[in-house]
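Query form — protein Tn3 family transposase

QUESTION: What is the three-dimensional structure of this chain?
INPUT:
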Amino acid sequence: MATRVFADEELARLREFPEIGREELFRFFTLTSADVAFVAPQGRGAGVRLGLAVILCSLPWLGFVPDRVADAPPVAVARLAGQLNVDVAQLRSYGRRAQTRSEHVRLVAQYLGWRAAGAMELKELDEFLLARALEHDSPTLLFRLGCEYLISARVIRPGPVTLVERVAHARAQAQAETYDRLAHEFTAERCAQLDGLLVNDASIGMSRLRWLATGPVEASASAVRAEVDKLEFLRGIGAEELDMSVLPAERRRFLATMGRRLTGQALERRDPQRRYPILLTVLAQSGTDVLDEVVGLFDQAISAKFGAAERRMQQELAERGKTGEDRQGLLDDLLAIVTDLGIGDEQIGGLIRGERIGWERLRAAIAQAKPRLPRDHGHLAALDGSYSYLRQFTPAVLSTVRFAGGTAATELLIAVHMLRELNATGARKVPEQAPAGFVPTRWRGYLEEARKSGSATAYRHYWELCVLLGLRDGLRSGDVFVPGSRRYADPAAYLLTSQQWEPQRGEFCRLVGKSADPAQALAAATDELHTAVAELEAVLAGGDGPVRLDEAGDLVISPLTAEDVPAEAIALKAELTEMLPFAPNVSLLIELDKRTGYLDCFTHASGKQARTPELKRNLIAVLLAYSTNLGLTRMGEACGISYDILAWTSEWYVREETLRAANLAIIDYHQRLPLTTVFGAGTLSCSDGQRFPTRGKSITARALSRYFANEGLSTYTHVTDQHATYGTKIIVTTRREAHYVLDEILGNATDLPITEHATDTHGVTLVNFGLFDLLGMQLSPRIRDLGRITLYRPGPRADAETKFPRTGPLMTRKLNMELIAEHWDDLLRLAGSLKFGHATASLLVGKLSASGRQNALAAALKEYGALRRTIYAAKYLADPDYRRKISRQLNKGESLHALRRDLLYAHEGMIRARHLDGQTEQAWCLTLATNAVIAWTTEYYGLAVEQMRRTGRRIDDDVLAHISPAHSENINFFGAIEVDIDAELAQLGPTGYRPLRVRDTLF
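ANSWER: The structure tokens for Tn3 family transposase are given below.
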């Protein structure tokens, strides 16, 4: 049974000493005075003392003691020998008698308070493994968790075969427990429904399971109706009533992943105890996913027509402007006559009707007259042209989806209910009592005009359009929510409850360095503001710097000059590049896996652990297929691996979670390289969107003529000051990037302590400024037209101008400090909900940014964000070195954009995946390849620098800091692709690296 999880060689490694890192060496192999007294009593030989010390340190490190104590890592043995003043060679004589080792293990366990794994200890281990197996089904993960549990419980780990057998038993128990917890759902009727999901349905041409898993690729009326049909089907079989909370969230995710990847035939072959929990979980998750999809498509389809109407309106305004040129000329001539004081009043009429203008021009101008435009310049009237199209799907959405909301949306929800009733009964006239208070002022004129004219049809059209647009905006801001939805849930559900927050408040305030007392917190912020403004005041007093006031008292900010890169750095980079070996991208990925083991992060979605010898080869081919944009078909032709094998590998191994884990392994390795710390401390990062064209329809793609010939999407990436990309997200190009800035920072699983983050103008909102500070971080954007933003003051204008004569007049708005203080605890609770992972930042930031003035919490957060933005602006303007640092970090992000463009070369760089999951996986493959290039180049730069220094060459770190590893001059992305791992590893020298090139040669 054990070999199903680990091969024989892996089992052998689990019984032996592993390699040891620097941190582990100092942590576990440092003896205290009590330890020395324990291992070195009088009469005990040097070899025995050293062997006993190895056992003493190995047990807390590994949780067990390998049989061959003499095979301990040499560096660890040397460290212990130095502390005991004995010769390292003495260890060779230790352990010739097995009884000696066993007796010493018993003595060490007694000294450290450890226990052998008896019946009681194994029973407790089984209980722990069962609890974990309900969350995770990966045997290797459960094995590792079991080892960690035994160490924490101070129980000596039994042999790996024994532990693997306990893991297998726990997995089997978890499957049975899963079925038992859901058994009440598996009635005869329910089981028949679940089995029916696997049968081909002639009406849709596929099985219902596959139908539910097939997402839309466009936001059309037919796509919305198709998703509504799915929602009605799910509700018809009671999917929304399923309560899956009896299972841990990780177990539900695992079962749903299995259900979406397995074919209907594969599920039919599984026994009922495994098949029914999988199908039930898919059904429950589909209920939420399809509901979110319906509402999302509703928003997107309406917004598409709203945008098209706006473009038509702008075109009509342009045409109106062209045809109005004659009337404008007539007006100019009229004004010239009327305002001429030399012309008497009695002469004006004659000049206008006679020789100066004439009746012909006047009549022509009257004929060209057009009716006055409404306040919105005809936007809603242009949208009315799409009324019949919207009617193709909006009645179905309103009849299927239930909406709720707070007091701010009361009238709107009444109107939605009335519209639903009108649709159901077929009535055409809007009732007299129908509310219209939710209609924006710019559109009320349409309703008033229609009512005056007595046109019930026109009134119905405009009122219904206002209801639909109001519903869309309410869903975006959170004033309206959808019960049962995840993406459009009640905003209150995203926050920790008062009961959850109370015990966590103190810990959160300690983590972020904020006071729970609003008076104390705001006093500190006010002092910080005054200090920053005083620094800016001193700069403005100089009068002639890059930041100064002009004669009118307006702020003038000269652009930063291009950074002066030392000529020495340019020459050094060219020299290093000549020394780096040439390597195809496939060789690079193979070489990095040898050092990082990142390919081991790709686990089978079902939890299976049997790995064929060809699996790594297939994984590398899949990663290259996506990161170069060749696709699986072309990659199969290029490397000689069949498409079926690549598709199967991609389906079961390449997922967002495994890609994230593999990237994390590469980033952690890159972080430990000596040269990495020269580039940066790892505390500063930046984020920016990169746009890629798409081919084919996709609900994530948008037309943006500035960037695409047709449509495209954005990848939003987060990059550290060490050039590593730690976050990647697919976003719609027309959405604000600012909503996604915090997502990857809060979800950052690396060891990098990000404390400051830079963005360009697209990543900036007042909400973000407030949240970053509340989370204990600094948002440091490069804001376009910074001199035109509003600066805020905490007190009266007179006080600010008296204290800061030059800067005070620039602070034109007064902060509402009372509002911030009133909602201070709620602001902390909001930030705490994000910090502790209770909510997704992009959801909250999007809703808070869209919220109106009636949302007091959003208003308070924006007010606090205004305070933080003013502090930042003053610091940024006062310190040119700070501005340079932010610009340098953003340039690092841009250089990685260029590298990603080089990598994604095939098919003109057009993304062809049509669904979000596929696009996300391809984006993470590209990120993995990018990080691999960065890590490989950094490592070989370091080897080249080390070689130079050994020859006596002086190379300063200040010069190296200007050299970026984000280049691809030494990497070949093109040509034949042969994934031969053994042959590639054979090319590495005895040191495990490719030999550096001799300068001025091709080899």
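ADDITIONAL NOTE: The first helix runs from residue 8 to 14.
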